[in-house]
Amino acid sequence: MRICPRDRYQQDSAGVPAAGAALGIVSRDADDDGQAADSLTLDQIGTLQLAIVEAGADIGRFCNVCGIEWIEQLPASKLDSAMTRLATFREWQQKK
Description:
The protein is mainly alpha-helical. It has a domain at 38-96. It has helices at 18-22, 42-55, 59-66, 79-95.
């Protein structure tokens, strides 16, 4: 299950034109200004998705609160804080 507004991985689906491929021209990902170093791993994304579901939280609202459009945009440096928020939300939901 992907959690993003549109499958952003399809933006390069057209690939390199045949002439480019014949000449050995390779397209590369856009420069991320070092943000990849603070990206979540696939395991972390899965753990976060599970925590959101188990807490009974709305994924869209979670993303809005965190200031992101989709889960994969959450910086790894903010994962612990996000997990703490979800645990607090889950406890609050259980007391209702």
